[in-house]
Design brief:
two-stranded antiparallel sheet; Hypothetical protein af1432; HD/PDEase_dom; 1% strand; mainly alpha
């Protein structure tokens, strides 16, 4: 496939997805990226190095997908469990060649400076990792003041960072941060509308980085891994949906390129679940009305993340429509009939089949005959596409193996 995607837009989309873990506070990675960029600028780094730290800042928490873990990281200056997500994030980034250089920085971004000095970590990696650690903690200290009294608290925040010079943070980096953060404008830029403008300017003035569709697919696997790690009940859900969706596309005699794009849509369909609180996803009983409202917005959030990437507009819609129904009774867009393409209907069928075949907190995985009975009923009522359900019924064992790797 010859379609070219701009890597910058993919990075921004991934940053948006990662920031959804904050539920109501959805700009942590962007603020860390901004502060890292400003510190790099003060250090006199060249354009490429500044952009690199900006991207690392936005992606540094790619190992975090649960709201519980996010809460610990925001509320505790030094949390003993912080190293786990650093290691997971580094492994994810190492799997994609364009991000290989970011991985070691992310690996050590919660390692105290005094420990880095005693390690064999390369000096430039240690410096960059500690810079990300420092501005990450600045954002954690600032979190309760955003939209309230941040400017009144900057002195206290700077003072607390200074108290950790030589232990958590490099004294040189602390001194640098004190200089960079001396202006009110530095802090004002952390407010959502101004931060968004900074991101817009970064995209306008940085160099486009085209990547192939195959590279995008590799990135999609990273997205899927992050989402599926949010709950052990959804382990490999996105991967299973993508495999089954591709199979159904091939059985529908769709073109190779379309099958490729459907596979990616399957990998990305649940990105918005990163914003659903853990207690909702893992609830052992029926969801109440408020829980359902929280859950039902996830496919809308998926669309908001993916629509930023030029060249995958169709994928964004197929992924976002996975809870829509031909009879118009789906959510959250309430599409009906011909408004739903066959590609979108494929993702919907694959999603339902995979979910029924997998354990959930409120039930065990269903046996294949029961799955076929239920999706048959959903097809009869207009909730799923009849023709696609018949394709599943024609090869039930194959579909099950693709969905859950049995």
């Amino acid at each position: 496939m010859t379609v070219s995607i701009d890597l910058r837009q993919v990075v921004y989309a991934l940053a948006d997805a990662l920031d959804l873990v904050g539920v109501d506070e959805t700009a942590h990675g962007k603020r860390v990226g901004y502060m890292a960029f400003k510190c790099a600028e003060m250090m006199g780094m060249d354009k490429e190095a500044r952009e690199r730290l900006f991207h690392i800042g936005m992606l540094h928490d790619c190992g975090v997908s649960s709201t519980e873990e996010h809460t610990h990281l925001v509320e505790e200056m030094v949390w003993e469990g912080a190293d786990a997500h650093s290691a997971i994030g580094a492994t994810l980034l190492e799997s994609f060649s364009y991000f290989h250089d970011y991985a070691q920085v992310v690996r050590y971004h919660h390692t105290p400076w005094e420990s880095l000095l005693e390690s064999d970590v390369k000096p430039e990696i240690a410096r960059d990792a500690n810079l990300i650690f420092m501005v990450d903690r600045v954002d954690a200290l600032s979190a309760i003041h955003y939209g309230k009294d941040l400017l009144q608290q900057t002195g206290n925040i700077r003072k607390e960072i200074q108290e950790y010079a030589g232990t958590l943070f490099s004294p040189d980096l602390v001194e640098l941060f004190v200089l960079v953060s001396n202006s009110e404008a530095f802090w004002m830029m952390l407010e959502p509308p101004h931060l968004q403008r900074f991101l817009f300017d970064m995209e306008r003035f940085t160099t486009p980085q085209p990547v192939s569709f195959e590279k995008l697919k590799q990135m999609a696997r990273i997205f899927a891994t992050i989402v599926d790690a949010k709950s052990h009940f959804t382990f490999e859900h996105s991967v299973g949906v993508s495999r089954l969706a591709r199979h159904l596309a091939e059985r529908s005699s769709m073109a190779f390129d379309t099958c490729e794009r459907i596979e990616v849509a399957g990998l990305l369909h649940d990105l918005g679940k990163l914003r659903v609180p853990d207690q909702v996803l893992d609830k052992p009983g029926p969801l109440d009305a408020d829980d359902k409202l929280l859950l039902h917005r996830h496919s809308f959030e998926t669309y908001q993340v993916l629509r930023e990437i030029e060249g995958i507009e169709d994928i964004a819609l197929w992924a976002a429509y996975h809870h829509e129904a031909p009879n118009g009774q789906g959510y959250p867009f309430r599409r009906i009939g011909e408004e739903l393409t066959r590609e979108a209907r494929i993702i919907a069928v694959a999603d339902v089949f995979q979910a029924l075949a997998q354990d959930r907190p409120y039930r065990a995985a269903m046996a294949l005959p029961k799955i076929l009975e239920l999706i048959g009923e959903m097809a009869e009522s207009g909730h799923l596409d009849t023709d696609l359900v018949e394709l599943v019924k024609a090869e039930p064992e194959t579909c099950l193996k693709l969905a859950v790797s049995v």
